[in-house]
Design goal:
There is one protein chain. Helix content is 66%, strand content 0%. With 254 residues, it is an all-alpha fold. It has 2 domains: 6-140, Cyclin A, domain 1, CATH 1.10.472; 151-253, Cyclin-like (Cyclin A, domain 1, Orthogonal Bundle), CATH 1.10.472.10. This is Cyclin-Q. One of its GO terms (biological process) is regulation of transcription by RNA polymerase II.
Length: 254
């Protein structure tokens, strides 16, 4: 199958996507950003059902955003690209996911309560489309599919901040859980590829601490400058502003 043009749209995948993106949704022709938000939500929900770890799911979202930085959203079916990104991310992060499982979970996503697809022509056509689209993604990204995520930085920053806070105050406030939830939400939009991973991690922790009114001991430098010496208050505010825009978009997608 030729994957270099609009013919890359899979008939089967278009039927899958059409059932979720038509009818009851807020608009017949969603904006580009709203469309990407919904597709990334699909990636995350699919990842949960496939028991994928958080980093492979994050890699799938980054692959998706990187790909559509290079091509127009109307050139390829976004949900087909998303399925291929999940498949490729499993390989990159050494958590291989079978194409059959990805297809069946995706089918259930768009057809709640339905039985798994039969191994008929429609199934094999969709499987071939996922595999061929994976090759297209690799070529578009010049085979650069390994990314540095904020996860390791956030873990390090959380451990450092925890040691500075009264243990009883820390246990009463879900700062860590909130920071991880905020970080996951970042991947719904392209902000995850427009900011440095260290800055995203700092901003998520900063927002979580402020949300619960947790104060850290004052020093000559701000705590976030101690943890990441190249981040500025403007960097933190820019990340948070982008995240808040995603939450505004989420409200429109409900």
């Amino acid at each position: 199958m030729d994957m270099e043009g609009p013919s890359a749209h899979s008939t089967a995948s278009l039927r899958l996507a059409g059932r979720r993106d038509s009818g009851g949704d807020i608009e017949a022709y969603p904006s580009r950003d709203t469309k990407h938000f919904r597709v990334c939500r699909f990636i995350m929900e699919t990842g949960v059902k496939l028991c994928m770890r958080s980093v492979p799911v994050a890699t799938a979202c980054v692959l998706y955003h990187r790909f559509f930085e290079r091509v127009g959203i109307h050139a390829y079916e976004p949900y087909l690209v998303a399925m291929s990104c999940v498949y490729l991310a499993g390989k990159v992060e050494e958590q291989h996911i079978r194409t059959r499982d990805i297809i069946n979970v995706s089918h259930r996503y768009f057809n709640s309560g339905s039985a798994p697809l039969e191994c008929d022509k429609e199934f094999w056509d969709l499987r071939d489309s996922v595999v061929q689209c994976e090759l297209l993604i690799l070529r578009q990204l010049n085979f650069q599919v390994s990314f540095e995520h904020p996860h390791k930085y956030l873990l390090h920053y959380l451990l450092s901040v925890k040691s500075l806070v009264n243990r009883h105050a820390w246990s009463r406030t879900p700062v860590a859980e909130t920071s991880w939830a905020l970080l996951r939400d970042c991947y719904h939009g392209a902000m995850c590829i427009h900011h440095r991973p260290q800055h995203i991690a700092i901003a998520m922790l900063y927002l979580a601490l402020n949300s619960y009114g947790v104060e850290l001991p004052a020093g000559e430098r701000e705590w976030w400058q101690v943890l990441c010496d190249d981040v500025t208050k403007a960097d933190i505010e820019a990340v948070i502003a982008d995240l808040l825009q995603l939450y505004d978009m989420e409200a429109k997608c409900i």
